[in-house]
Amino acid sequence: MTNIEIKRCALLASIRAWATVQDDVRALVQTGSLVRRDGLSDEFSDLNIEIVVRDPATLIETDAWIHEIGNPITILHLDAEDGQEWSTRLVIYEGGITVDFTLAGVRRLESMLGAAGLDPLYEQGYRVLLDKDEMGKTLPASGFAVPVRPFPSEARFHERVEEFWFEAFHVPRYLARGELYQVKQRDWTMKELLLEMMEWHALARSGGTADV
What we know:
Layout: H1 3-20, E1 25-31, E2 47-53, H2 57-60, H3 64-69, E3 72-78, E4 87-93, E5 97-105, H4 107-110, H5 120-123, E6 127-131, H6 154-177, H7 180-206
Parallel strand pairs: 2-5
Antiparallel strand pairs: 1-2, 1-6, 3-4, 4-5
């Protein structure tokens, strides 16, 4: 193992040790590239850890638990909102290891025990690290399936192409005016559109199976 992989393993062990003695924490589940089978993970891959807790508010209201696990360099707080059911904490720890913590309630696992089955994230792959109530044992097995992304409609495709060239037309004009902030804005929009088109290209080349 590389030095950074050794540090990542040590941090993962620290997370498990911390969670084991926290009565409110009922399970730990690892998701993300490190547990998928697509071969895309490497030594720089983040740890994606779901902390399943009786009351997520106990972790949302304080960062003390993050410091108990290790020495954080920076913490990004992303609270639950539309499209994101659970709050997350993105933490870069000393040694350069990034952990994406999801602070989930017990119903996170309970919702996948019935006929509904695994959600798309778990379907890509998961690993139960701690299972105090043995809910993890009854979760369906992952199919390691890539979520299916729809292809754009013809109208959507033409709309995005036209918008790209509309933005491109304005870049030299703003450069000539010396309005560099406007240049940067237009350039950024073009890059976002180009990324979307690159994803479509990857989907087309793979028959819709690429994970974009």
